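User: Hey, quick favor. My workstation is busy. Could you predict this chain's structure for me?
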Amino acid sequence: MKAIRTLLLISFAILIAASLGMSTAAYSKKEGKACTFCHPAGKFKEFTDAGKYYKEHNHSLEGYKASEEKK
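Assistant: No problem, here it is.
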């Protein structure tokens, strides 16, 4: 019984982790952008300006204008 409960808990954790990973991939697919458009490379818990805009505007890039790069 204890083994079944442990197995169910592990399965549940894996399903939750997988769904969280897929949701971000779904955003990338929806917008046609790479993950690094909204997240700095290697720092996927942080956001670029585009990522902050996307989060604050109901998961939409509509109206987003990229800032000019500083020289």
